[in-house]
Design a protein that fits this description.
The chain has two domains: 122 residues, Up-down Bundle (Four Helix Bundle (Hemerythrin (Met), subunit A)); 91 residues, Helix Hairpins. The chain is flat. It is an all-alpha fold and 274 residues long. The protein contains twelve helices and no strands.
């Protein structure tokens, strides 16, 4: 059987999807390049709007630009959903959620003043630069990195649980050693000091005063260096084990998923034909 010919609407949606998702044509590359510039400009507007002196001098201009970018990205988001055969799959994907979150704060600011500050999440949309400019090697590396983080999540979770126990014990010990008279007024405050010391941040707002407390603090500081290295080693070990399949820049026509191996015939997320 020969496949049924595509209708004009279906053909238009396919052409629209190729422009929006794949950047295989000159128009598609231009679309994504303009989109990236608009994202950068919109983030700059959000940053400038948070500066009181600039906001006082140009209140109407910044608000107008903010709404202009929001309407532009809303239209672009609608086009993305329209161009796909299974738009809900894309809407639930990482980039689909980011695209939605990139426009919601402006509308929420009508009910919750200040919510527009969360528009800085638009910066995550710049991750599309790897696909737009055909940096397939970087797409491949990001897939490997994500796989390594995913595969090591259980080990890291167990490690963090063990560290939680250690932090509570050290905090209780410092509360007993130093006491309220030296700033360790309660166990939660002592736990806060423990976390600050283990992570080598060292704010200095709470510090041991007794010789025993300082000696114990030295032990906690040295322990902190070892603790920081453990999760890094876990993820690095998974990176070494991770395979490196070649990844294409083709997007799924149904859900918009990317990162398919070269030569793949079906989408790894929804199973649709590529």
């Amino acid at each position: 059987m020969t496949p049924a010919p595509k209708t004009d609407t279906a053909g238009f949606r396919d052409r629209l999807r190729a422009i929006i998702f794949e950047s295989e044509t000159r128009v598609g590359r231009l679309f994504d390049t303009v989109l990236l510039v608009a994202i950068l400009a919109s983030v700059a507007v959000v940053l400038l709007e948070s500066v009181p002196s600039i906001r006082a001098r140009h209140p109407g201009l910044l608000v107008g630009l903010e709404w202009g970018f929001t309407l532009l990205f809303t239209f672009e988001y609608a086009l993305r959903l329209y161009s796909l055969r299974e738009p809900l799959r894309y809407a639930r994907s990482f980039f689909g959620v980011v695209d939605l979150l990139a426009i919601l704060p402006t509308y929420l600011s009508l009910l919750l003043p200040g919510a527009q500050s969360f528009l800085v999440i638009r910066v995550l949309r710049l991750m599309r630069v790897f696909r737009v400019f055909k940096i397939a090697a970087y797409v491949d590396e990001s897939t490997i990195l994500w796989r390594a983080v995913r595969d090591s999540r259980r080990k890291v979770a167990i490690f963090l649980f063990a560290i939680f126990n250690v932090v509570v014990i050290i905090g209780a010990a410092m509360h007993v050693i130093e006491g309220p008279q030296n700033g360790f007024t309660d166990i939660p405050t002592s736990i806060y000091w423990t976390v600050v010391t283990l992570t080598t941040v060292g704010y200095g707002d709470v510090a041991p005063q007794t010789p025993l407390g300082r000696a114990f603090a030295v032990f906690v500081m040295l322990l902190g260096y070892g603790i920081i290295a453990v999760p890094t080693g876990l993820v690095t070990a998974e990176l070494v084990r991770a395979a490196r399949p070649a990844v294409s820049t083709q997007a799924c026509p149904a859900c918009g998923a990317e990162g398919h191996p070269v030569g793949a015939r079906h989408c790894h997320r929804c199973g649709a034909g590529l």
